[in-house]
Amino acid sequence: MGFKSTFSVVLKIFPSGPSWIKSNSGRHEGSMFYRRLYFIIPDEPQAVRVAANIEAAGVDRQHMHAIPGKGVTLMHLPPATEKQRHDAAWQLERRMWTGNMALFALALAGLIVSFVWESPFGAVLSLAIMALTFTAGALFAMRVPDTHLDEFRGALSHSEVLLMVDVPTSRVVEIEELVGRCHPEAIPGGTSWTIEALGI
After folding, report:
1. What span, in angstroms and rounded, lies between the C-alpha atoms of 30 and 32?
2. Which of 22, 40, 71, 182 lies most in the core, judged by the most C-beta atoms within 10 Å?
């Protein structure tokens, strides 16, 4: 079972979920958080046309990153950085998830010790930490998209081009529809997330 699936099961057990998550579910991330859209395109000339249409829609080229397939040399597209080619966002995501789970486990151990030692303060503190880590994990499982570069290794083993486009959450549907309407040759590959300030 994947690490997101674990919290999905928990959320089925507690369907109401934390009220804080429900009250914020309609909001999108601040300007530092972006959604990353993936498009598999047959070759660079077609990818250039896709990028031009996206740019005309108001997305700066600095928010576009291309990864060439086998034997392809990019001439007219902004190449992905080293961090982006190695999916640094996925690595950060795994570290954050592992840290969150470890903190939850420590808090659970602290709760047990607090009951044994009859420490009300320790019990309250442990419960607060457990609630915080559970909320963070539930928010992660419910709202963070889960597409990563490993899913495109097959396509990149050929001469195709992977175009990654970073947009605010509010523009995801607009850009996906634009590409789908004007460039049926571009295959949508899903959505992930990025933090612009980290260059990932």
Report:
1. 6
2. 40
Residues 122-151: pLDDT tens digits? Answer: 999 999 999 998 887 777 767 667 788 888
Is the Cα dihedral 154, 155, 156, 159 positive or negative?
positive
Are 114 and 123 in contact by the 8 Å Cβ rule? The answer is: yes
What is d(CA 82, CA 96) in angstroms, rounded to the nearest whole number?
Answer: 21
* 19-57: burial string, b at 16+ Cβ within 10 Å, e else: eebeeeeeeeeeeebbbbbbbbbbebebbbebbebbeee
Amino acid letter, 113 = V
Reported as half-sphere exposure (CB side, CA atoms, 13 A), residue 92 has a value of 14
Condensed to tens digits (0 to 9), the pLDDT of residues 11-57 reads: 443 344 443 333 333 333 445 789 999 999 999 999 999 999 999 99
The residue type at 159 = S
* HSE, side-chain direction, 13 A CA sphere, residue 128: 6
